[in-house]
Amino acid sequence: MSVTILVGGQWGDEGKGKVIDLLADGVDMVVRSQGGNNAGHTVVSEGREFRFQLIPSGILYPQVTCVIGHGMVVDPGAFLRELDTLRSQGISTDNLFISDRAHMVMPYHPALDKLGEHQRGDDRLGTTARGIGPCYEDKVRRIGFRIGDLQKPLFMAKKLAFVLRLKNETLTRLYDHDPFDEKAILDEYMGYAERLDRYIRDIYPVVQGALAQNRRILLEGAQGVMLDIDLGTYPYVTSSAPTAGGSLTGSGIPPSRIDRTVGVFKAYATRVGYGPFPTELTDSLGEYLREHGGEYGTVTGRARRTGWFDANVARYSVNTNGIDSIVVTKLDVLSGLDPLRIAVAYDSKGEAWDHPIANISHYKHCEPQYVEMPGWTESLRDCRRFEDLPANAQAYVTRLEELCAASVDVISVGPDRQHTIVRRPIV
Ligand code: IMP
After folding, report:
1. CA geometry: angle at 59 spanning 295 and 232, to 5°?
2. Is residue 1 scored above 80 in pLDDT?
3. Which of 131, 254, 258, 409 has the fewest CB atoms inside 10 Å of its own CB, making it the most exposed?
4. Is 90 exceeded by the pLDDT of residue 204?
């Protein structure tokens, strides 16, 4: 029996797609538990590039059952577009299920997302504008639509009449926006219902059946711990829990069944959108990392903010998620930089911190305390064993290991599957 949780340890975009792809080959089921099409995972497999937003990347393996768990929010139009793209690339989607309990992004959600951002002005969050926050808001407010509602047209119509009255009132009165048309939404969503029907399932027996048969399950996280609604830099966070805890509630798998929690960390740090980022580099070094690391968002194409590895964040992720195995990605991007810096503490108004600060206004006075490490100039692309890495790259990884108090088991030195050093297998 083996259930593995995989989480992003920083602000998302750690390169989880590649890691999930590596692990998916050795499992029977991949489940996504939170987020929606705000996520973007890129997988390069045998020279072909695949982009995922909602569908677990395990779909590339025909033997793997892929589950969109009930903790996710699903935009049905985006889901169908992703499905069509995968099919056109020759990928079978026969083993894919969407939980009937997953919430649905409705057409007014992206509109409210954008209007809400506009209203916040300078204090905007920099969301992906996919309607993720407004959809989760409705879930918690108990006026959300679930995927299973598509199979109940009368219920859907009755509920839409009620919910749309509330939404249109907000849209027209607060935002001076045109109202949404009830019939147009119903027609659009009932059209989706037909195509989605074969994928919609009560995933409880699917997941519990796999657990009962001791199948190997991978819980695929999206975003990262620092974007967690509770643990992250609130309010500059996403609206779900991209943590080990979130992957349990979003899949219905109990903590007692978890064998391993894997954290994926980039060898430096990036963030998209606004909010605290203590080790950010706004100079030519930051630009170097952005250009060499190809740090542009998969979903929105936005330039990512870049900075040094922050061990305060990494330790916090390790401790709050119970990460016992670390994957370091993009180590190759650091080739040519000397010296390298790692933040090991913060100083905020003379007070020492070893973990992220809850009060975000304190970040204005937060000075990261760095250790310096010597860099290396060699390309790492052809390294396949830890011993192949230049001594300074080995020392850098060992330092990360010590600072995080968890073992670095896999190191990625390039985008392709083969650009990987496996020190210890993780599933
Ligand atoms: P939302 O999830 O679209 O509401 O965006 C909230 C914040 O999370 C913004 O700063 C986004 O840039 C960030 N975010 C959401 N999804 C991702 C992701 O997959 N990778 C990195 N940042 C993300």
Report:
1. 45
2. no
3. 254
4. yes
Question: What tokens were used for 38?
Answer: 């705000």
Could you give the maximum distance between any two Cα atoms of the chain, in Å?
66
Residue % of the chain over a pLDDT of 70: 100
How many residues does this entry show for the chain? Answer: 427
Query: Exposure pattern of 51-82 as b/e (b: 16+ CB <10 Å)?
Result: ebbbbbbbbbbeebbbbbbbbbbbbbebbbeb
| pLDDT digit string, tens, across residues 288-325 | 999 999 999 888 889 999 999 999 999 999 999 999 99
CA distance 137 to 127: 14
Q: Whose CA is nearest to atom 15 of ligand 1?
A: 38
Give the CB-side neighbour count of residue 332, counting CA atoms within 13 A: 22
- Residues within 6 Å of ligand 1 by CB: 12-13, 38-40, 125-128, 130, 132-133, 222-223, 227, 236, 238-239, 272-273
Q: Which three-class secondary structure state does DSSP give residue 183?
A: helix
CA distances from 49 to 84, 226, 230, 309 (A): 15, 27, 34, 27
- The Cα angle at residue 39 between residues 36 and 40, in degrees rounded to 5: 135
Average pLDDT of span 247-259? 97
Work out whether strand 260-266 and strand 420-422 pair parallel, antiparallel, or are unpaired: unpaired
**How far does the chain reach from its first CA to its final CA, in angstroms?**
10
What is the C-alpha separation between 66 and 342, in angstroms, rounded? 37
- What is the distance between the alpha carbons of residues 189 and 179, in angstroms, rounded to a whole number? 17
What's the pLDDT at 191? 96
Ligand 1: residue of 128, 265, 298, 306 to mutate (most ligand atoms within 8 A of CB) is: 128
Cβ-based neighbour number of residue 213 at 10 Å? 9
